[in-house]
Amino acid sequence: MSFIQRDGVGEQGKAGHQASERPDRRLAQPFSGWTHERMNSSINAFIEESELEDYQDYIRRGAFLAQSKAAFENDRNDGLILKESERQALELEHSTRRIDKFKQPWRLYALVACCSLAAAVQGWDETAVNGAQIYYKHAFHLKNDDWSLGLVASAPYLCCAFSCWLNYPMNKLLDRRGVIFITCLISSFTCLGQAFPQTWKQLFAARFLLGFGIGPKSATVPIYAAEAAPANIRGALVMMWQMWTAFGIMCGLITGVVLAGVREGSNPNICGNNSGSANLLSSKCSLNWRLMLASPMILPLFVAAYIYTLPESPRWLLMKARKGNKKKYEAAFMALVKLRHTKLQAGRDLFLINHLLEGEEEIMKQQNPFKEIISVKRNRRALTASVITMFMQQFCGVNVTAYYSSSILVERAHFTDRNALLISMGFGIINFLFALPAVWTIDSFGRRNLLLSTFPFMAFFQILMVIAFTLKTGSVAQNALVILGMYLFGVAYSPGEGPVPFVYSAESMPLYNRDFGMGIVTSINWFWNFFIGFTWPGFLSKFTAPGAYGWYAAWCVIGWWMILLFVRETKDLTLEQLDQVFEYPTKDHMRHGLDQLKWFVGRYFMGRKSLKKPVFLHKEGPDEVIITRERGFEEVQVEEKPDRIMEFS
């Protein structure tokens, strides 16, 4: 490793600093090095521009607080002081106790609850088809290997692969709440529409339109929550999307059990699989699967009714204000007042968000964010890692169980309809319950470590499914092993590959082109979601159950290697430190990943307890960053002080 240190003093040093500075690094600590006079000048200009003279005390003190947490520990800020209530709120905000970060205003948790309901809507939309297809495939005379069976099941995700790109124009035309309101209404109406089809093509059309309610919502809700949340709880709130999606998945599978008996099914001559279409599509025979498909329609109506009782995203309001609507400045401040403990914190965040928006606008004028995602190596590495996590969320095979478990259990293991639905419901409950620990472990154990720890187990449990389907069909051994493999796979998936992809993608992209990057990776996720759902019936028929599950077990192994070599750890790192992580050449990180593997094998399988664990980037305290690059097990450590820049090659 070679490196160059520059002290950042003198014209040549300053020029070098500016030349090497990435745009997102400039936005990471925007007021670093500003003089007192420059801060005052910027504050006065903002107050004049925003016409917020009535709140200037909170904005002025908040601006100095945005520059430094220790702003009021000396007398340099014109004698500005903190009130006791403000001091207590700031102490709570910076507490080292993890539990304290969850002590937030009730209005923020009301917003979180609404976003959680919106996530549950998506999960319920996804699994309502699981139990329903046991019945509607007979009503529409769809065979198990029929391509139309997969097309109906995956129709919403085909639409989502394109509709998520509507997120940007919809948010520009409407506000965040408006997009959530409209998409929830679409979800409700299309779910109702799924209850009335008389042909599989009509059901496909209704489910395809459902994608317009899922796609833009899946991109907008996490952004809305992230923009409303304070920094110290933002990570936990971003992962709420996936956790409560798992809750919705559970609700959909429970609904399948509850509604399965809502028909006259006791007489096989009336509602048996060989009955005519007239009987199978009549209300006495088809009411159960029609109610299953329509069941998600109620929850989005609650979200739509509730969303306008909440404050709008302060960031969106400031974006409108900066385009000429000055009344939005006060609206943004009042929104922050509702979402923070004190007006001082609201003033601080208002000034900071406004400054970041100004910086982003300047960057957008100078550069092409979409082009930079591909052309800049740092961004390309982050995009590659994000695509891997999103792609593997689908190709680990989880949605095969989410969409088709009931049909698989009935057709391949000869479970009764009701038992198949009960077993699927158990998977949904496990999927939600085992996502809960990730609220803690995703920040303490780490994103990459969660993935590396869970993928081997996911592969092993998929192999259990392979073994199960090679046993005698309907035997006790097969039934027990199928249930065990399915449930343990859910246990391994839920705290790792379940919540990590959306959190990882949101934080690894540079701030100034995060919307573009998230649009790409979200679209990729939905496309492969559609691909898995569409191809599974034919794939299962051609490869048989052991071959199909073996395929996804192999992908879990491939995914583990891709994560080891290409996905970098992002926990507990600032934007500036993340920039350093992704500045490393890919070959260096690949070497680091192999070093980690050698250490793990040597430590735990060969008993070499003296081996030192490889470290790629590690933060030591508030005042220094130690960057460790390892070749084999020789360490080279370099200390970087805050007033210096370090370049690596």
Features:
single chain; 649 residues; mainly alpha; Growth Hormone, Chain: A; 3-stranded antiparallel beta sheet; two-stranded antiparallel ribbon; 30 helices; 70% helix; 4% strand; disordered N terminus
Mean pLDDT: 82
The CATH architecture of the domain at 381-573 would be Up-down Bundle
Helix content: over 70%
Q: Give the percentage of residues in beta strands.
A: under 5%
Radius of gyration: 27 Å
**The first-level CATH class name of the domain at 381-573:** Mainly Alpha
N- and C-termini, Cα separation = 6 Å
Helix-strand blueprint:
Elements lengths: L2 E4 L3 H11 L2 H6 L7 H15 L5 H12 L16 H10 L12 H34 L7 H17 L3 H7 L2 H18 L6 H29 L5 H5 L1 H20 L8 H4 L5 H4 L2 H12 L3 H9 L7 H9 L4 H13 L3 H24 L2 H7 L1 H19 L2 H16 L3 H17 L4 H7 L2 H22 L7 H18 L6 H9 L5 H53 L8 H9 L2 H19 L12 E4 L3 E8 L2 E7 L4 E4 L1
Antiparallel strand pairs: 1-5, 2-3, 3-4
Helix pairs in contact: 3-4, 4-19, 6-10, 6-12, 6-15, 6-16, 6-22, 7-10, 7-28, 9-10, 9-16, 12-15, 12-23, 17-18, 17-19, 18-19, 20-21, 21-27, 21-28, 22-23, 22-28, 23-26, 25-26, 25-28, 27-28
